[in-house]
């Protein structure tokens, strides 16, 4: 099982989590349950979906949109992670500096 399947299984096992998922996705409880159950059975895009997206009857604009959306999601995730790491490091440095100032002030005669 991949991480998404494990999480889907955990949500399905807990009625409160299932209701929260349904509310966040703006769908009925039954639709949310059906979606998560399908994620457990088919975690990857169905071949039909790939055929639909990349088939020759689709326009180049549509294909470009889908590819850009996927690339944008990946870049956004990477940028978000990097930003979080930098902010966390700066917060750690600021905390250490503030602690050093307080200690120095207390030790000053």
Structure summarized in a few sentences:
The protein has five helices and no strands. By secondary structure, it is an all-alpha fold.
Task: Describe the protein's architecture and organization.
The protein has 109 residues and is mostly helical. The chain folds into two domains: 1-44, no CATH class; 49-109. The chain has helices at 3-13, 15-24, 29-41, 47-54, 60-107. Helix 1 packs across helix 2 (15-24) and helix 2 (15-24) crosses helix 3 (29-41). The longest helix is centred in the C-terminal third of the chain and has 48 residues, at 60-107.
Order of helices and strands: HHHHH
Q: Count of DSSP E strands? A: 0
Shape estimate: elongated
Q: Mean pLDDT score, rounded?
A: 84
If you compute it from the alpha carbons, what radius of gyration comes out, rounded to the nearest whole angstrom?
23 Å
């Amino acid at each position: 099982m991949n991480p998404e399947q494990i999480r889907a299984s955990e949500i399905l096992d807990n009625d409160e989590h299932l209701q929260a998922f349904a509310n966040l996705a703006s769908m009925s409880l039954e639709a949310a349950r059906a979606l998560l159950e399908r994620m457990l059975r088919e975690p990857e895009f169905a071949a039909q979906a790939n055929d639909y997206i990349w088939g020759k009857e689709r326009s180049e604009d549509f294909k470009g949109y889908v590819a850009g959306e996927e690339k944008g999601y990946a870049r956004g995730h990477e940028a978000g992670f990097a930003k979080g790491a930098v902010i966390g490091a700066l917060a750690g440095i600021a905390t250490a500096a503030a602690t050093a100032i307080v200690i120095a002030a207390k030790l000053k005669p």
